[in-house]
Specification:
The complex is a heterodimer. Chain A contains no helices and eleven strands. By secondary structure, chain A is mainly β.
Amino acid sequence: AQSVTQLGSHVSVSEGALVLLRCNYSSSVPPYLFWYVQYPNQGLQLLLKYTSAATLVKGINGFEAEFKKSETSFHLTKPSAHMSDAAEYFCAVRRDTGGFKTIFGAGTRLFVKA
Amino acid sequence: NAGVTQTPKFRILKIGQSMTLQCAQDMNHNYMYWYRQDPGMGLKLIYYSVGAGITDKGEVPNGYNVSRSTTEDFPLRLELAAPSQTSVYFCASSDPGDYGYTFGSGTRLTVV
């Protein structure tokens, strides 16, 4: 069965500092992996996706993630945090059967300090 | 560019009441999904549909029903509302070739 685990329910960084949000996956087949962002009182928005092409994936708003098969990880990074990055971030994996259902992690809330 | 539209945005129900959460998409996506979001729990799949007339249960279907008579619409029905159904509900759609989901803005439901 496929699953994702996000390490840390809350992460706090200073404005301008590196953002690192951790995600590990479990999958018996090559996975499709995603990061979504949710701003307060809004729906989720796709940040980036890994679909077995390049292992370093670039997304919107300066975020990127690297697929590391040996570590079963798909961590999200951004070199310099901005106040507007404060939100909740979800890592997700897509199943390849049964309607391509997506399984979401529990989420990591990012706080950005001035 | 409407995307996925959910109505209503907010609703308060009394225990035992029923209601339908509406979801419509204008992207001609075959796949549609209903999730509920509870604090610290991520999103849990309630029901999904791979096309008009075809629906199936997700992880947490009890207390809910769905129908899919058209490609565009995927309503979620709550019968006999219970406090445990207090949550934020999200509808999403996807194209099999695109992999990612497009989400609606959600319905915040409180059952008292």
